[in-house]
Amino acid sequence: MPSATHPATPHFAAILFDLDGTLVDHESACLEGARRWARELGVSEDPDR
Which UniProt keywords are present, listed alphabetically (predicted)? Predict the structure, then answer.
């Protein structure tokens, strides 16, 4: 049993990075996150404004 000072460290056989969207298309999620962030900062989504 791990102690409070030495918590258990998970062991992974591999870590998978999908940096180019081959496995999961996450473009829409990134765009929505950027839109929300812009709204919170008071920035217009319209680049002409």
Answer: Hydrolase
Return d(Cα 40, Cα 26) in angstroms, integer.
Answer: 21
- Give the Cα separation of 22 and 3 in Å (integer): 40
Cβ–Cβ < 8 Å for 45, 38: yes
* 45 Cβ contact partners less than 8 Å away, ≥ 6 residues apart: 35, 38, 39
- In the predicted structure, residue 47 carries a pLDDT above the cut 70: no
Which pTM does this prediction carry? 0.46
Supply 12's token pair.
């992974």
Residue 27's identity, in one-letter code, is E
